[in-house]
Amino acid sequence: MTASPAYDATRARVETYFDRTATRTWERLTSDAPVSRIRQTVRAGRDRMRALMLSRLPLDLRGARILDAGCGAGQMSAELAARGADVLGVDLSPQLIGIAEARMPAELRPRVQFVAGDMLDTAHGTFDAVFAMDSLIYYDRHDLNTALGRLAQRTELIVFTVAPKTTLLTAMWWAGKLFPRSDRSPVMVPQAPGRLNAASVGRIASGFYISECMEMRR
Predict the structure, then answer these.
(1) Which phi-psi region, left, alpha or beta, contains residue 101 (left: φ > 0; alpha: ψ -120 to 50)?
(2) How far is residue 86 CA from its own chain's centroid?
(3) Helix, strand, or coil here: 19?
(4) Residue 64 has pLDDT above 90, yes or no
(5) Do 129 and 102 meet the contact criterion of CB atoms below 8 Å apart?
(6) Residue 48 burial (C-beta neighbours within 10 Å; 0-12, 13-18, 19+)
(7) If you write DSSP's letter for every residue of 131-154 in order, what string do you get?
(8) pLDDT of amino acid 187
(9) Residue 4: its pLDDT value, please?
(10) How buried is residue 205: exposed, middle or buried, by Cβ count under 10 Å (0-12/13-18/19+)?
(11) Residues 147-195: tens digit of each pLDDT
């Protein structure tokens, strides 16, 4: 399975956004810093989604190796490491990787490695589980399925999110006004979860944050 030119182009847009355009925005969003009411709903929704995804794994993860695919500022990586897992956090943005490294509690650092790069790179090795929170939401169904297929070759469990095809998200997709123009994110691609080769775990809706947790097991 090889990535398409469309996948490469989308990946480049995502990298530019998170590493150059809106690094400070996401640094604040993923912290306790004051944010706008709109972003408060996004922050709350992401916190609830992270908890939902983590509920798919045991509380004791000692001996497990887990990929945090699109790890951003490292919140999921920290939660997984706190349960005892050895975590590889991969993100396209070196700047976000720097933030994740700086924020990681000292007692968890021995169990976490952060790498700036492509989450699909086979050089990362194999894993007991892969988590991809809001890192696959920018790709069309073909490229999403291709990415999942490549990850599935190296793990038995993938827990990931998609932007579900709802009236609100479809309107946002067409309008492109989820965030102000100055730091607008790459366009999400709403998916019909039932058309993916994965099981739905649950949906989180919190103001401007709407995301569906999916699970794929081999």
Answers:
(1) alpha
(2) 18
(3) helix
(4) yes
(5) no
(6) middle
(7) EESSSSTTS-HHHHHHHHHHHHTT
(8) 75
(9) 82
(10) middle
(11) 999 999 999 999 999 999 876 656 655 555 455 444 455 678 899 988 8
- DSSP bridge pairs for 202: 213
Chain centroid to CA 63: 23
pLDDT of residue 2 exceeding 80, the answer is no
| Residue with the two structure tokens 């996401």 | 26
Q: What are phi and psi of 204, to 5 degrees?
A: -115, 125
CATH number 3.40.50.10740 is the correct assignment for the domain at 5-217: no
Domain ranges of the chain: 5-217
Q: Is 113 exposed, middle or buried (0-12, 13-18, 19+ CB in 10 A)?
A: middle
By the 8 A CB rule, do 80 and 66 touch?
yes
Determine how β-strand 199-206 pairs with β-strand 157-162: unpaired
Q: Are 132 and 70 in contact (CB under 8 A)?
A: yes
* Triad 44, 94, 16: Cα angle to 5°: 80
Of the candidates 15, 8, 1, the residue with the CA atom closest to the CA atom of residue 145? 1
112: exposed, middle or buried (Cβ count in 10 Å: 0-12, 13-18, 19+): buried
Q: Are 79 and 55 within 8 A, CB to CB?
A: no
pLDDT digits (tens, 9 = 90+) for 10-34: 899 898 888 888 899 989 999 999 9
List pLDDT tens digits, range 89-116: 999 999 999 999 999 999 999 999 999 9
Helix (H, G, I), strand (E, B) or coil at 185: coil
Residues 138 and 73: their CA atoms lie apart, in Å, by: 18
